[in-house]
């Protein structure tokens, strides 16, 4: 059995069974004579087909003329292609469906939550190292103060002379000294509970540092593995949809638009998106960890932090509105460059003879949008 897929109606007389498709839907089927008598709009083309001119060796010129007439009688109907569709450009912020589709392509919910947990755990380990350094420094300072105090008490225990008439030895001064001692005792109570020696502190800080490095490596490996899986699945899905698309899709979408999706857009998903996404998550969690550590040391520093945060949020909104629109404009103006590149190379002689500048105009428009984004 031989299956012939064609738009050439002159071959329909030679087939046994005909199936007429329109936008992927079967409109009619049957033999050649049945379709001629069916009265369908598309079947009317069968009546307009001229009879085949028998080739004769002595009349080759008339045969060629007859074939030209046959083509000219059906070119208006067989070449009635649908008009091209302009490339769509979205507006506003990126919808949550785009992010969810990307993460779903990378894996299921368990994998996504595991990667996010590794990000949080890595930042917690890094912040724990900073906090333990502060604890260690204060512990060494208290240990040094106690040694100095014990040394002074032992050397001056029997040689101290008080002048009760001096204002510095008044009752008020003794009250201040007692209050300072009370606050120092309250502060050192935590350090007395976790009174580690210097060797133990070194082991603890080394363990926190090693844990931070290991967790960060595992986090990066899991994140980039998820991004690679998402990129591969998105490419396979797009390629499968292209191979299963109807002829109308290729008639309404130029080849440059398809090449733009498979080259530049997939390149951005493969190379740019993972690095930008990991920087965004890592810097955001690092900033949050710094704010928590600073607030634990001095809560009053949260006031200028909130003011600076509001200023940066307003600057971010101002940049995203402009940058997102310019990036979308650059992506739309890139497709005509791909579309006219092959045609320009094939018709380079005609372009030079007639001085056509259509490709130059498309390239200049894309270059303008690209330099604005830079």
From TrEMBL:
GO CC terms on record?
Answer: membrane
Q: Which domain of life is it from?
A: Eukaryota
Spans through the membrane: 105-126, 202-224, 272-294, 300-319
| InterPro entries referenced in this protein's UniProt entry, alphabetically | ABC1_TM_dom, ABC1_TM_sf, ABC_transporter_C-like, P-loop_NTPase
The UniProt keywords, alphabetically, are: ATP-binding, Membrane, Nucleotide-binding, Transmembrane, Transmembrane helix, Transport
Q: Which SUPFAM superfamilies match?
A: ABC transporter transmembrane region (SSF90123), P-loop containing nucleoside triphosphate hydrolases (SSF52540)
Signal sequence, renumbered to the chain: none
- Which PROSITE patterns does the UniProt record give? ABC_TM1F
Identify a single GO molecular function assigned to this protein: ABC-type transporter activity
A Pfam family reported for this protein in Swiss-Prot or TrEMBL: ABC_membrane
Q: Which residues form the ABC transmembrane type-1 domain?
A: 202-353
Q: List the Gene3D superfamilies.
A: ABC transporter type 1, transmembrane domain, P-loop containing nucleotide triphosphate hydrolases
Q: Which PANTHER family match?
A: ATP-BINDING CASSETTE SUB-FAMILY C (PTHR24223), FI20146P1-RELATED (PTHR24223:SF448)
Its protein name is ABC transporter transmembrane region
